[in-house]
Amino acid sequence: MSNLRLDAKQATQFVEQIFNGYGFSKRNSSLIAASLIDADLRGITSHGIQRLSMYDRKIQAKYIMPDAIWRIINQTETSLLVDANQTMGQLVSIFTMNEIIEKAQSHGIAVGVVKNSNHFGAAGYYARMAAKKGLIGIAATNSNPLLVPPNAREPFLGSNPLAFAFPTKKDPFVFDAATSTVSLGKIEVLLKNNQKIPGEWAVDGNYQQQSDPQTILDDLSRDNRIGGILPLGGLREDNSNYKGLGNAMIIECLTAILAQGSISADLGNKNHDLSHFFLALDPSLFGSLDETENNLSQMLTRMRHMSHLSEEPITLPGDKEIHAYEENQVKGIAIDQRTFDELNVIANRLDVPNLRNFDAVKG
């Protein structure tokens, strides 16, 4: 069976049942499922349902605690510091972003920082939450070490993604990207589809370009990690890789350093203490929200309709996700055979109806 697709509603129900089987409440299982399937609907398969295998390992190892209760360490009218207490990153992130949205609606701007957390999925999900309320949203996180600084033999920083969302008259403008060339999830997707790593994405312990995803994943899973993923800009300074490195360092400052959590270099197989950063800003502080949204909408339209060289349209950040969302609502979310099999193993262990029972599976 290949080129599988799952109906989004049934896939959501499946994920809810999986997390409920782990011991999460029905409400929390629903929140987690919604965030994962949203990523798949937007074509971000690296952060969607295929991530269940990773969460499964972490839950079994008790790195993620289904019954964990996060706590607010400190807050003001415009700030929030939260200890996630090893809960799912999605849950504490949704809570924190909702809290700072309320603060920003009252006071114009608010920042939330989280420590002692886990992988939170796609950063754009949280930035988009703010944009849906007419606010500018920013979300970022550090991660386990996988980014190899220029000329280094081992990783030090995480993929350290940043997401930015700004409301418009229709779909918000959303930019969501790792500060490494790609996320680790993209390497996993390549492996599952029997594809090589293209371009200047990854290096071995001798800072030589590496194209085998299995080798990179194995090297990054060791206690003594070697090699890894390159920063934006790839191998060389003349391709501006120092800019990618600098951006990753900024995210490290806004997350681990600001939260007084663990930096990426100190995270690993036995230490799970990820940190997140969230910001919500009311653009009406600076003028009419209606005019601001109109201005951005007009700018995006002008850019998309610029004169261009080929028959392909000009594509702006976020456009592919918008189109994928519309298409996948109808066609269903894509899933590779390996992920399909992995999820069925998990479902059988948790005594949850597996994907073979779904009439939505298509070959």
From TrEMBL:
<dbReference type="GO" id="GO:0030060">
    <property type="term" value="F:L-malate dehydrogenase (NAD+) activity"/>
</dbReference>
<dbReference type="InterPro" id="IPR003767">
    <property type="entry name" value="Malate/L-lactate_DH-like"/>
</dbReference>
<dbReference type="InterPro" id="IPR043143">
    <property type="entry name" value="Mal/L-sulf/L-lact_DH-like_NADP"/>
</dbReference>
<protein>
    <submittedName>
        <fullName>Malate dehydrogenase</fullName>
        <ecNumber>1.1.1.37</ecNumber>
    </submittedName>
</protein>
<dbReference type="InterPro" id="IPR036111">
    <property type="entry name" value="Mal/L-sulfo/L-lacto_DH-like_sf"/>
</dbReference>
<dbReference type="Pfam" id="PF02615">
    <property type="entry name" value="Ldh_2"/>
</dbReference>
<comment type="similarity">
    <text>Belongs to the LDH2/MDH2 oxidoreductase family.</text>
</comment>
<keyword id="KW-0560">Oxidoreductase</keyword>
<dbReference type="InterPro" id="IPR043144">
    <property type="entry name" value="Mal/L-sulf/L-lact_DH-like_ah"/>
</dbReference>
